[in-house]
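#struct-queue
[09:14] JT: dropping the first one here, sequence first, then the structure tokens:
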Amino acid sequence: MTTKEDGTTELKIEGVQPHHSGEYACLLSNTWGYATSRSLLTVIEPVADQPPWPPMKVNQQGMDVVMSWDSPPGFDQLFYDLDAMGTNCADSWKTIACDLKQSNFVVEGLLPGSQVQFRIVAKDEKGETVSSQVSDVHHLSSDFVGSDSEIPRQWKTNFSSMFEEKEDLGRGRYSVVNRVIQKHDGKEMAAKFVNPKLIGQDAVATEISILQKFEHAGIVRFIDAYESPTNFIIILSYISGPPIFDFLCTKPTFNECEASSYMYQLLNALQYIHSYNVAHLDIKPENILFDTTTSNVVLVDFGDARLIENDFNVLPLVGSPEFSAPEIVNSSPVGLATDIWAIGVLSYVLLSGISPFLDESPDETCAHIMHNDFSFPDDFFGAISPEARDFISHIVVSDMRQRPSAQNCVEHPWMLKRMLDSQQMKSISTSRLARFLERRKGQKDVGVVHMKE
């Protein structure tokens, strides 16, 4: 990259290949803020003197795809992203796993009858990237029996003969989540038992139809649906790990490198579901789990999720308003940007251990939310970077039309903190975050989901 005398900057990209074609973003930042622009790059012919990065090795096992890959030649990488494209990914490349440190991954639960391609994107500490060759198209049999590709017209009724119930994992307003064991193969799963006296079958079917759209490492996976005389039962993938805040509190300290990495993963999952016009609408610490087997954060509980098709989606305020956006508090239509507000509040709590709007009563908390009444006290944010505070200020905005998209959030300069050497960053004590969790666990309306540690 070179800067000319007239002030313009020129970026030269060498060794491009046809599979590098796509949309690229340029991020400019200084002490006053940041700006982004995008360009579409189309590569017609490969560059002959640059050896291509071979595609990954792929082994298909039922509805799962096991893949591994070698490091790209001459590229000192730190992280990998896994992209997929096919009938389950709206025929465009979507990142389904981000910031992987290992050179292997398992994509689970692909839908029967789908056709999917994969590619790997390697990233180094300078922000440079290189993409692998695209894999062959993988065809998944439509005859596979194991998960339904549509909402079950007739819900299965043999849950007791298929699963053995174990301990409770968590309780919500309308449901209980248990760990279960599939009897025929001993596989661990999670079963969400929904009380039909509190939630109708149509609402449960909506949650299932939304979950069935997704194939992403950062999103809990739908497996099957049952009903019993007392419950609707949703079978989900089992996440081996606690909520993200609980995980952090197992250590005395963490730093902004870790914090920005976890928020980047969460935003990547949000960007994915928002591409389907789906809003989660219940982003809070208890619904973000840390998978100890993959070191990824996973978004769970899509009971409040909605397909945003018009301006008439109004979500009732139930329970604590602590992470609720103004449009929920005043019963205005919600949208994708409603999730972005919650990301800002979540980031504030993560870095400081205190809640930006919380007061002694729900009414007072709601008043602070409606007036966007928050600040960054030095006692709690003195050691926090200006980029982190700018990130929060840019997204905790009352007018949802002025909030950035999940894609814009991913491009914010604070996200680059995850690429830095964590040893050189200031430590953040988890003591205040632990006190925050103790208070949350004392609230009757907060369903804490603890997976196996």
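[09:21] JT: and here's the second one, same format:
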Amino acid sequence: MKENDPKETWHKTACVLCSSNCGLEVKLDGKEITRVRGNKSHVGSKGYTCEKALRVNFYQNFHGRITTPLKRLPDGTHIEVDWDTAISEVAEGFKKVNETYGDGKILYYGGGGQGNHLGVGYSLATRNALKITRRSNALAQEKTGEAWVEGRMFGAHTHGNFHETEVAVFLGKNPWHSHGFDEARRVLKEISADPNRSMVVIDPRRTETADLADFWLPVKPGSDAFLLAAIISVIFEENLSAKSWLAENTVGLNEITQAFSNLPVGDFASRCGIPEEQIRTVARRLAKAKSVAFYEDLGIEMGPHSTLVSYLQRVVWVLLGNYGNYGGMSVHSYAAPLFNYKASGSEPTDPVTGSLIISDFFACNEIADGILSDHPERNRALLIESTNPVHSLAESEKFRQAMRAVDFSVVVDVALTETAREASYFLPAATQYEKVETTFFSAGFPDNWICVRPPILKPPEGVLTEPEIHTRIIRELGLTKDVDFLPLRELAKKGLDEFSEGFMEFSINNPEVAALGAIALYETLGSVLPDGMEGAAVLWFTAQQTALKYPSQVKAAGHKGEGPSLGNSLFEAMISNPDGVIFTRHEQEQSWDLLNTVDSKINLAIPEMLKEVKGLADSPTQYTSDEFPFVLAAGERRSFTANTIMRNPEWRKRDQEGTLRLSLEDAQKLGIDNGARVRITTPGGTAVAVAEINETMMQGHVSLPNGHGLSYSPAGGEPEVFGVPTNELTSTDWCDPIAKTPWHKHVPAQLEVVNP
């Protein structure tokens, strides 16, 4: 080995393939990521990683990378344009929409994708400049029901301490593959091996996590609400609740006591497919535990009664006194909130569809319907960033039509995605390894962390970062001039304390420019940050807000100073430590200080939910029919799936095409052999997949993986589609009544063998 050989240098970064963003160390050969290992010094993951991280080079280096802006012609083809032309025409296109239809007819869709978050801070400047008030992203097809419930009950987001909990409960969640907390697989093994701890898994499929569980409850698909309601009824019937604790810390106990005390436990047990005695055994184990931590995920958030189930599981652990206790559930600090929880219960409605705008997110399941209507308030333009709604939202063809129906659309992304192909303009962005990035998904308590990861590669010529793209749009709109920022740049050179004082004065004297927020920071503070780190300037504001909100806890985490100096200390720590930093450190009892309800108590009774509970007895348990007798889970997470961020199918060692998993009983009944091609038909469409007879599947329940069905050009030729695009099979009509989240995990389907 040559001394100082750059190929032998380990570079600190993070995995970008799920929300955990585990710390990595990688080796490079030119632009290729050649070796990957967990970063043992990382503050959150501590060296842990799963097999997916070993494939990040397939994300970074894929065939067909576009390195110049593209303009879509009326015939659907694209031509290359230079950046000056693209920025000019993008700015003019959005201005024209505002002039023609009035402000507020542009929808921003982005900011929720796999740790690619700093760009959304800069997009806010563009949104403010263009008076874009409507927004949505992938969170609005998954988490808005949960956010609505948490806002009503806690005024904030809660998370479990799975590292220390006595009983871990996973509801429609398989952390073995979908993670969701630091060191997930290690923690699962520890719980499973400890005779004093227990694991409960509620899932129709016997997942890898279910194999480790003490209690696996294989509910019939879509019947989770009946199971949880039965558990609550048992808690009341057997006098298992934490009565004195509830009297002191909650409101609404009388209402829910009335709602749940006389439910037909036996009938509900039969309807969800779990023996009544097993339900009672699990309820008693939860009640006996000193701490219980719950985690729900897409398995229930994209199925029937999803918002209700989000509510019911929280009622379970609150009734048993599992808030604020060591190893239980807690509200946590945040560097940047994902939702506006305080708005829960007083949401405005979409003027076009009438649906709730939960936490400022328009229901993405209804975006296409709104655009394709003749309503005068419908969206007339789209700004889409680092996301692929044509592929990821229900009923892909409908969103494709919607993009063609708007007057103007722009996509900012790494690849020419299915969505980007439909846009008026495609603006090529840097990958997450070519720019500074972070994640805001950490939900730790009592300690919470953030990791700012520097770029390890330079973007190819012709590609820009999102901060630079938005800055150029703002300049083109004529809202900033270079001269505006000269004094602040000089102060930034002197140091953060001088800059802080100057920025406050600048904001008072230049309110129009200050309203552009991140752009002002990028143009000033960004100019003195190390090369490639300019985009981290927006985190200065994040650090200041965090220090203002949690001053004692930021100091307890080791950061020094008072007021803006404390924020500066945190900012410097964030941008200078690729291992990540603890940004808040709480005492356990301080979890109660983080509750954000009016009376600082947990609100147990949500009238809309109690109404649904009352109607459960008359609610259907299944939504299949003679024509569509199977329940299709469209988007199962498997060992080699990673949403739509991984376009190159070569990264998959197994399951290249994305098999249709089904039970042996169903295969025998239909005459389906392993490896046979099977036609899947749903009310939304049809597709063909390779059959995989899988012993983990319940009879009548079939699944397709997420992240497949993307177009890709392995040799740079015409794009091919690899695997099944699941949202060619789903429908916007099947969705939650409150959050409008789609039933991706509960699609009625028909199967038949395709003749050779």
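[09:30] RK: nice, looked through the second one.
[09:31] RK: The chain has 27 helices and 28 strands.
[09:31] JT: good to know. The chain has four domains: 6-60, 65-136+343-439+447-481+526-585, 144-334+600-614, 623-753.
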